[in-house]
Structures are given as structure tokens and as C-alpha cells.
Amino acid sequence: MESINLGKTGLQIRRIGLGSWAIGGPCMDGGAQMGWGDVDDEQSVRAIRRAVELGVNYIDTANIYGAGHSEEVVGRAVRGIRDEVVISTKFGILCDPVAKCTTGIIREAGEVARSCEDSLRRLGTDRIDLLLFHLGSCAPEFAAEVREALEALVRAGKIRAYGWSTEDAACARIFAEGEHCAAFMHIGNVLEDYPDMIALCEETGMISLCRSPLCMGLLTGKYGTDTRFAANDLRGRNAPAWMQYFVDGKPNPELLRRLDGIRSVLTSGGRTLAQGCLAWLWGRSPQTVPVPGFRTERQAEDNARALEFGPLTPAQMAEIDGILGRNA
After folding, report:
1. What single string gives the DSSP state of each residue in 142-210?
2. Does the domain at residues 3-323 carry the CATH identifier 3.40.50.2300?
3. What is the pTM of this model?
């Protein structure tokens, strides 16, 4: 269970990754907060290096996380150990690194190469192992043009493979036709299943990179009804319109209720609650790689050590489905 092939690259990634959104720092998107509050870069670097020590070799970031800052921090952290890690980043949404805000989306396939070069510079590397398209969906004709631009980057040696961060299986199928498409990133956690994306990954042999595997921290169990988040945290009152895990700066009470119902199953066998949620994803499919976020060494360690327990059993998976009313 512990590793999975990254397409035709010859690379293998462990079945858990490091999601680097939270270490990017403040950034605005259309007037809404897109960052996770203040960050400590030295702490972020230590956390990444600790995870690598524990065997985690896949690190995910994006050009818009902190308007480029996350990529720079990841680049610092892997300096001297670049060949030990597999790095993915994303493109498609444009940003201003000085104003710390998004500025639009790419409109032409020619912008793909420019975005790639910018990310290579910030990461301080000569290649990106996996480059992910970051728009949720687009016209089929444009998707095909972007796919061909990515194939050209593979031929140029700029990237090793590519994929799409999307929950739109129809769009993803367009990329799946490409020779060097290797993965799809989509929401995936014990409370939110995307069977169409899982099925597509199993059918095509793509890696299913599960983002928000811990519902932005809600599934760790450390937040309760009295929790309040700072204004510069996207979980706070300036949250984007799509935020559902936290409402009015507080954890969504309905999700907390559902989590309480399955808590005992998830924590069986000595797992922490977060480790149980990651184990559910491994039990969901042989293609899944959860990519939890982190801010501290302790969080990175807890997530990495989830591998020691392995996936939930089929009986535990069925029990959770029953509690959540998903047996129909």
C-alpha cells in the first residue's frame, strides 16, 4: 500500500503527501481571504524536512498559495534533497506576488509555459515532477489545448507529468487521453466522497490525489463549537463563498455532529482521529493518496505516521457508511 507509480515517470510516491497551502501566508481572492493566517517560514521548512525524514516524498503546492510564497518555502526546504522528493505545483489562476492577490485566470494555452517557468524559478529547481491545472472546469476545446501545451513541456524536460485539480470527471477525461497525464486532484474525505473521480482514476490508472482529506482541520478533532479563527484565516469571517467546513468563522456544527458519529471507528486500533480519516481514504481505493495540509512538525509527523496503521478494514468502511447513511 505504501507507494504508487507516478505515470510513466519512473517515480514512486508514498501514499501520503504534504499539502503546502497553509504555509503560503495571506493572499486575497476577489475580496475574500485565501490564506491561512500568519506563517512561520522556519517552522514550515522544519516540518517539511521532518516529514521527508519519516519517508514522505510527495510535496504539493501551487503558484497562488501566498501568491508564490509557498513555492519559495518548499524550494528552500528541499534544497540539497531535491532528488529525494516529488514536487507538484499548479497553474491556471494568476496572481500578483507584491499585492498578494489573484488577478484572473489564464485565457491562452501559451500562458501555460510562462506559468511553468515562474514556478520553476520560485521552487529553485530545473523540473517539476507533476504540474496540475488549477481551474475547476473549462471548455473542452481549451482543455485539449492546455493538455497539448503540457505535453510540449514534457518533451522540453520542464515537467515529468501533468494532471488536473478538478471534481469534473468529464473534463478530467480530456486530460486522461494525454500520454503523460498521471494524476487527478479532487476533494476526498470521509464526509465527502467523489465516486466519479475515484472511478475514473481506477479505470485509467491515474493517481487520485485527495485534497481537503481533513476538511481543513475540522476532521482532526481539535476544533469545537467555541473555536474562532482570525480575520486573515480563510476559515474566519472573511471566508470565500465556497467555504462549507467553517461557517461565520466557526466549525460547521452539522459536520461536527457527523464526525462524532464515526469517531470511535476512526480512532480504533490506536489511531488519532486524523490518522483514522486518512486510513478511510486508503480503504476507499488503491489509487488514493491523501494530501493533508500542515503548519507544524507535529502535524507533519502525525500524518506521516498514519501509514504505520494502514487502511481501514472493509468491515470498518461498511460500518462508517452505515452510520452516515450511505449504504443505499
Report:
1. HHHHHHHHHHHHHHTTSEEEEEEE-S-HHHHHHHHTSTTEEEEEEE-BTTB--HHHHHHHHHHT-EEEE
2. no
3. 0.97
